[in-house]
Amino acid sequence: MNQYYSKKIYSPRQLLITSLLTIIYLFGLNAQTLELGILAGGANYQGDLASSEFKVITQQSNFAIGGFLRYAINESFALKLQVVKTELEGDDANSSYDFLEQRNLRFFSPLLDASLRLEWYPFVANSQYQQVLLPYVALGGSFFTFNPQAEYLGQVYELRPLNTEGQGLPSFPNRKPYSLYSGSVLAGIGIKFLLNEDLTLGLDISANYTFTDYLDDVSDTYADYQELAFTYGTLSADISYQVDDFFDLNQTTPLPGTRRGNPNLNDLFFIAGITLSYNLVNPERASGRGMGCPTF
């Protein structure tokens, strides 16, 4: 019996594909318009291993690629399902602040984000006046997976299994291993440029406030070096506390209660990109009332 049920457990990717096909089918039954599109751009992380310095923002931005379905509820509102794949990263070495450089931590993490948002268009397309620029604002939420990793002494390690902030130690009864699945609340802005009745070019920017403070594996205070080493091994303790590596000192241990991160603010990430979409379902095209070529 257990063997039978184990074969019925689907991976997140299989569930995502199944959900996507179901939504395509349901939206296509009675759609105003249904656009299928792609997004190409960049993503940036903001958290404990990032600062607001412009050079840090540019150095810690990475390529993002994704796809989306946009279903027009009416002329003013649309629902968009979007899936984006990217990588987030942060490195204290990029900062100009001494206290961050001396902390000497770093991470990178693959990110797969699936979001659903409601877009509001204050101006609507009008075939009579050939309006082709459509700004919008968006609100929604997302579900994503991540897996923080870091290079240490020339080798890459996954950080969650190391419990670098003492998760599970008797001295930190409230610190539990964090999940590699989380969600976010997002807000976005964008603009669509109608190339013709079927093709749309756009620019889309969204900010995601997440429900986790561990995108970067950093959140609270340091755990005791000796306790970490005894419970989880020397590697966990060494990766957790790297101030002595920065100063090229023999191994030391942080003072009790020393801050490693800020537990009062969860991590964020931003996704921005150019979009190109095609109308799979277009009542204007079906009725022969196309908008024609854009005019200005």
Task: Give a brief outline of the structure.
With about 300 residues, the chain is an alpha+beta fold. The chain has helices spanning about 1-5, 10-30, 55-60, 100-105, 225-230, 235-240, 245, 285; strands at about 35-45, 60-70, 75-90, 105-120, 135-145, 150, 155-160, 180-195, 200-210, 270-280. The protein has a single domain, classed as Porin, CATH 2.40.160.20.
The average pLDDT is 87
Order of helices and strands: HHEHEEHEEEEEEHHHEH
Strand order of the largest sheet: 1-2-3-4-5-8-9-10
What fraction, in percent, of the residue positions are helical?
Answer: 10-25%
Q: Look up the CATH topology.
A: Porin
Task: Please give the CATH class.
Answer: Mainly Beta
Which CATH-level-2 architecture? Beta Barrel
Helix and strand content put the structural class at alpha+beta
SS field, number of helical segments: 8
Give the low-confidence spans: 1-7, 290-296
- Give the N-to-C terminal Cα separation: 67 Å
User: Into how many domains do the coordinates divide?
Assistant: 1
User: How much β-strand is present in the residues?
Assistant: 35-45%
The biggest beta sheet, please?
Answer: 8 strands, antiparallel, barrel
Radius of gyration over alpha carbons? 23 Å
Number of strands: 10
**Which of globular, elongated, flat, extended, rod-shaped describes the shape?**
elongated
